[in-house]
Amino acid sequence: MSEQAGETYRVLLKDTVEAIQVAQELMRSENERHKIIGLNLFLDLSD
Less packed terminus of the chain by CB within 10 Å, N or C? Predict the structure, then answer.
């Protein structure tokens, strides 16, 4: 692999890893939101 191709590959890999981390973070916050909504519904129903 040429120097240029190696550099391109490293940049792509880094971007991919960052994109995955962002997606995981979004999924986590989405799950938290659903838990909160579910808890609120549960509390509303138990009144």
Answer: C
Mean pLDDT computed over 22-26: 95
When the pLDDT of each residue in the chain is averaged and rounded to a whole number, the result is 91
pTM of the model: 0.61
The string of DSSP codes covering 9-47 is HHHHHHHHHHHHHHHHHHHHHHHHHHHHHHHHHHHHHT-
Q: Are the beta carbons of 14 and 21 closer than 8 angstroms?
A: no
CA 38 – CA 19 distance, rounded (Å): 28
